[in-house]
Design goal:
single chain, about 190 residues, mainly alpha, 8 helices
Length: about 190
């Protein structure tokens, strides 16, 4: 990525995060009252982490495997890195979720809200998916945004959790893609 473009994108991301943080409570209260059964069903499927992984990682891996195995390794590395980074940040911040969610007895770190691991994982995959499967670019971007939106819609996360997760994930994906393209992650 061009250095000036990257800096502008980073500054815009920071501003977007700060603005989203200001409106966290209002957005959360809005979606408590703004629920429809139809959307609950559709978004309930989309917000499932397994569905997000299937659409954004497994299916693209199957498509790319015969064309470019190394891009598949990049996608999996990016996904794993984003999940690990999300866990580390959750351990540092320890922000409570906006609602009482199901408590995971052995992995209590998942019970924390900041950042959204869903958003971080799907947005980290976007740079590689757009690079290696550009014809489906709108599908990848749209699905990533819908996954992030569902996390807010159901009250699992504040807006700032999702915005930060999306931005940090996206920058993680760009960073790893650039290293990959320079031949520093694996030999071409």
């Amino acid at each position: 990525m061009e250095k000036n473009k990257g800096i502008r994108l980073l500054i815009a991301g920071i501003l977007l995060f700060l603005i989203s943080y200001i409106f966290d409570r209002q957005i959360n209260l809005f979606f408590k009252d703004f629920r429809f059964a139809f959307f609950d069903i559709i978004f309930g499927v989309m917000t499932n982490f397994g569905v997000a992984v299937l659409v954004m990682l497994i299916i693209p891996s199957i498509i790319l495997y015969n064309k470019n195995k190394k891009s598949v390794y990049l996608a999996w590395l990016t996904f794993i890195a984003s999940v690990i980074l999300a866990f580390v940040i959750k351990l540092i911040v320890l922000r409570q979720r906006p609602i009482e969610a199901f408590a995971y007895p052995f992995i209590t770190i998942i019970n924390y809200s900041f950042p959204s691991m869903h958003a971080m994982a799907v947005f980290s995959l976007l740079p590689a998916l757009i690079r290696f499967l550009p014809k489906q670019k709108n599908l990848w971007i749209g699905f990533a945004f819908l996954v992030g939106f569902t996390r807010i819609y159901f009250g699992f996360h504040f807006l700032s959790d999702v915005v930060f997760g999306a931005l940090f994930g996206y920058f993680t994906g760009i960073f790893l893609l650039e290293y990959y393209e320079k031949g520093k992650l694996c030999r071409k």
